[in-house]
Write a structure and sequence with these properties.
The chain is mainly α. Helix content is 71%, strand content 3%. 17% of the residues are buried.
Length: 161
């Protein structure tokens, strides 16, 4: 009988399982990220349509004091919901990502306009509102990755050498 040593057999099995998992992640990861990002945008936007329901409503009201929040917040809500729908459906991705990237700078306004609402101790101590804003870095990163696929790009689990 020609058996592999225990270590080699384990390594071979581990490699096979690792390849299966990595291939699954490469195949479905972008879709899951796109839909998950879409759900977040749609949900957060929808909350803004119901006065008092969104935890970000007061932050938006105080940050965009130069426009009437009674019309701006519903417009922002519909904008975010459009981004969410575009991401969930996966159509018109260039337009959807353009809307996303046009919206993102506005989410950073409180960092400058309302620092007392964002920082407990600058530059590391964040309030809940500050954490809500800083998490947008992840949304921006996800948008950039998705943008890298609009011309047909995909994740490749094992690139050719």
């Amino acid at each position: 009988m020609n058996q592999l040593p225990l270590g080699e057999n384990f390594q071979t099995q581990f490699d096979r399982i690792d390849r299966q998992i990595t291939n699954w992640m490469a195949r479905y990861g972008m879709v899951i990220m796109r839909i998950g990002l879409g759900v977040v945008f749609f949900w957060f936007g929808a909350l803004k349509l119901v006065p008092g329901l969104s935890p970000a409503e007061e932050l938006v009201r105080h940050t965009t004091y130069f426009v009437d929040p009674d019309w701006f917040i519903p417009v922002l809500a519909i904008w975010e919901m459009a981004i969410g729908l575009g991401l969930m459906v996966g159509k018109f991705m260039r337009l959807t990502l353009l809307l996303l990237f046009l919206q993102m700078p506005g989410t950073a306004l409180p960092l400058v306009i309302l620092p007392e609402a964002v920082w407990t101790q600058f530059p590391f101590g964040l309030t809940m509102e500050g954490q809500y804003i800083i998490k947008n870095l992840v949304l921006i990163g996800a948008g950039l990755v998705l943008g890298g696929t609009v011309r047909g790009g995909r994740l490749v689990p094992e690139p050719e050498k």
